[in-house]
Amino acid sequence: MPDLPPLPELHFAEIPATSRHRDTGDRLCYMEAGPVDLPPVLLHGIGANSMHWRFELAGLADRFRMIAWNAPGYLLSDNLRAETPSCRDYADALDDLLAALGIDGFHIVANSFGTRVAQCFAYHRPGRIRRVVFTGTSIPHSMSPEERARSVEARARMIERGGYGFGERAAALLGSAASADTLALVQQTVRATNTVGFMQVTRFIAEAEMPPLAAGLTMPLLMVQGEEDFVAPAVTNAELLAVALPHARRIMLAGCGHLPEVEFPSRVNDLIAAHLR
């Protein structure tokens, strides 16, 4: 792929002994680039990982210290023990990483499942997040037990052949403007998905109790959404959050799907930089 920026090294952080009752191991992993102290922490979606933020790690490191986590069960981050992790579990896991890196206040840039983690953290750790950028915004929705079961089963079918086969669904994440090179890059990223971690997040999204809509999101919030996002359509996600948060801004990108930071990286990087300045 032409002009593809390289990724930084994969780093490791030790999960503190006081938190290991939640985890199957003792490590979280992440990528980092840039020298500036106050960092944006990059939170990936359900089928992604820190590699998803390649263009942001490269394009914004001259202005910010960029930290891209791998959620529990992703890349080489150890899994959570719970079959259905709670909102607090993911907030605490992020807090473990931040504590290991000596980070108190910070910004968040998040996609999809990552926006759920951000909402959990904002609720359980109020006052820590300075500014937020969401893409592919996902909010909780009321579902019957039958709808929840169908949602989990549909996700299970997506990954039943393993991580490599899971890459075949990448086209469903992208909008009509995405190139063949972009599709190949997304396929390469999602093929790293661990089945256990993926299904834990699936059950979390479908079954775990979330904070009330917009609870804790008092900081400046920008939502960058694809007009062709059929995974988390803006009309049932970002627009509802915007109604609950009059201070939030929302920008729609034509020809874009669920992954604006990969589909339109230069445009999104400019938006992130302007919002976090």
Write the layout of secondary structure elements.
Elements: E1 10-14, E2 27-33, E3 40-43, H1 54-59, E4 66-70, H2 87-100, E5 106-111, H3 113-124, E6 129-135, H4 145-158, H5 163-166, H6 180-190, H7 195-207, E7 221-226, H8 238-244, E8 249-253, H9 260-263, H10 265-276
Parallel strand pairs: 3-4, 3-5, 5-6, 6-7, 7-8
Antiparallel strand pairs: 1-2, 2-4
Helix pairs in contact: 2-3, 4-7
| CATH C-level category | Alpha Beta
**Structural class, from helix and strand content?**
alpha/beta
Give the fraction of residues assigned to helices: 25-40%
Mean pLDDT over all positions: 96
| Strand arrangement in the largest pleated sheet | 1-2-4-3-5-6-7-8
The CATH superfamily appears as Alpha/Beta hydrolase fold, catalytic domain
* Main sheet: strands, sense, barrel: 8 strands, mixed
